[in-house]
Amino acid sequence: MVRNDEIIHGRQSIDTSRAVAIARKFLEQYHSPVIFKSTYLNNKTWIVTMEVGLLREDIMVVKIDAETGNIQGYDHVLQS
To answer: How many domains does the chain have?
Structure first.
């Protein structure tokens, strides 16, 4: 069911909290723990940054289509 606040120009769209939930669910398949760092909307793509791992701080950046909620890709940034 689509909420009124999820409609943008007649298209279904996901909000910030949904984008974070999608990224978290995706990353939890491979990493534990997953800690939210930041998110922003770049055109029609949510950019969600998460910290993953127990022993070292690895940063994962997940790109999510703002209209469909599909994951477009991700990048891994190893912190030293």
So the answer is: 1
Output the pTM of the full model: 0.80
Tokens 């997940």 correspond to: 62
From residue 23, alpha-carbon distances to 1, 4, 9, 42, 80 in Å are: 21, 23, 24, 16, 23
37-61: pLDDT as tens digits? 999 999 999 999 999 988 777 899 9
Give the range of the structural domain holding residue 21, as residue numbers without chain letter. Answer: 4-78
How far is residue 40 from each of residues 1, 20, 34, 36, 43, measured CA to CA in Å? 24, 10, 18, 12, 10
DSSP states along 12-49: E---HHHHHHHHHHHHHTT-S-EEEEEEEEETTEEEEE
